Amino acid sequence: MGEQPIFTTRAHVFQIDPTTKKNWVPASKQAVTVSYFYDSTRNSYRIISVDGSKVIINSTITPNMTFTKTSQKFGQWADSRANTVFGLGFASEQQLAKFAEKFQEVKEAAKLARDKSQEKMETSSNNSQESGRETPSSNQASSFNGTDDEKISHGGPETAALMSENDKLTTTVEQSNTNAKKLETELQTLRDNNARLVDSLTESSANVEIWKKQLNTCKEESDTLREKIAELESQCEKANVEKERNSKLTVRVQELETELQDKEQELENLRKQAEIIPQLMAECESITEKLQAAEVKNKDLEDRIEGLQADIEDSQSKQGNMKGELKKFMDVLDGKIDELHEFRQGLSKLGVDN
User: Fold this and answer.
1) Which helix (H) or strand (E) holds 85?
2) pLDDT tens digits along 203-250
3) Residues 67-80, buried b or exposed e (16+ Cβ, 10 A)?
4) Strand pairing partners for 54?
5) Are the CB atoms for 75 and 66 separated by under 8 Å?
6) Is the whole-model pTM more than 0.85?
7) Residue 261 and residue 20: Cα distance in Å, rounded?
């Protein structure tokens, strides 16, 4: 059957730098598929990853390998055959944990497969040695070439190798027979499926004609329905126009009702104001009387103001006369002061001369 995938995930692939052996070098530009493959014929396990047409991981798992988690989302393992170290960066911790668990399972399976192959080799070598001791031809060959013990010691490993090859060939033949039987079964299954497909094709051909007739009928019904839909759409357009008119009328009625309520409110206010008019008239008469009395008082006050203005004018004229006399007095006083100043200067000169 060849290799079959048993586990698949996605991760970013890295390889250790071959020169520094410390830095990681990206092997893929983005997350790629990483799968475990099992080869039933060789009884071996491999990790394979392909980026486009390039194989970036081809690592056969051995019992000596160890997968190490270096961070929460990153793990690595060393492959001595490829002489490199592979690193995988996952999107989550769960993906890393699942990959690590699968690595451990495959590692244990590889160890069991190696142990079984070693047991088969030991068993086949033991059987070949025993058959070599019991075969007469080996005794004859030993008597010709030397003693029996010497022949067994020299011919044992070759016989074991031949027996091992014989067992491998026998196993291969058995597997071939088994595969042949499986292929015959699969071939018969394919023949049965082919017959069923032929019958289905015949039924499909018959059904196609029926479907064509039904399609034509459906087309006619569709055309009829389209005409009815067009009529209904025209009726709906008319109904929509009527609905728009009704909605406009409804809005207009609401506006008129609002205006009517406003008018009624204004009328009610006018009625209330009409009830207050007699009181306002009485107040107006009293205010008129007060206004007349105030006018009389105002006239008296105007007469008094006129008298006061005459008095003010007299006082202003008198004040002007007093200002003129005061100015004359100040001029005389300035002259006297100047004379006094000159007199002081003369005294000071006399004092200096003395």
Assistant:
1) strand 84-89
2) 656 665 766 777 677 688 878 888 887 888 888 788 788 888 988 988
3) beeeeebbbbbbbe
4) 51
5) no
6) no
7) 95
